[in-house]
Amino acid sequence: MAECFFHTGRPAVARCKQCGRGLCSQCRIVTEQGIFCSDKCAQTFAVFVQRLKEAEERQAAGRRSSRWEQWVFVLILLAVVFFLVKKFFF
Ligand SMILES: [Zn+2]
Ligand SMILES: [Zn+2]
């Protein structure tokens, strides 16, 4: 593996998940999201993950509502057909 970005000559044991810098055991910052070189990188990554989650939730919500609208459309169509059949054949 590469050497630590902050300590020349010291072997890197991990890599920053955000910027990819090599980190020694002293420099790495371990968070719930992974290992980072600085708070700034950890924050940048957390924001990125949050945005991704929000986008996925929006997409899922969009899929749900469009499916719901389709069902309403089908039900209205059936009601109209039923109404017309009743009117013309009985
Ligand atoms: Zn970094
Ligand atoms: Zn280091």
Give a quick precis of the structure.
This protein has 90 residues and is mainly α. The protein has 1 helix and 4 strands.
Report on the architecture of this protein.
The protein is mainly alpha-helical. It has one domain (14-89). 57% of the residues lie in helices and 11% in strands. The chain is built from 1 helix and 4 strands. It has one helix at 39-89, and strands at residues 14-15, 22-23, 29-31, 34-36. It has a two-stranded antiparallel sheet. The longest helix has 51 residues, at 39-89. The chain is rod-shaped. One zinc ion is lined by residues 16, 18-19, 21, 36-38, 41.
**Span of the ends, CA to CA:** 83 Å
Number of strands: 4
Tally of helical segments:
1
* Structural class label: mainly alpha
Q: Helicity, in percent?
A: 55-70%
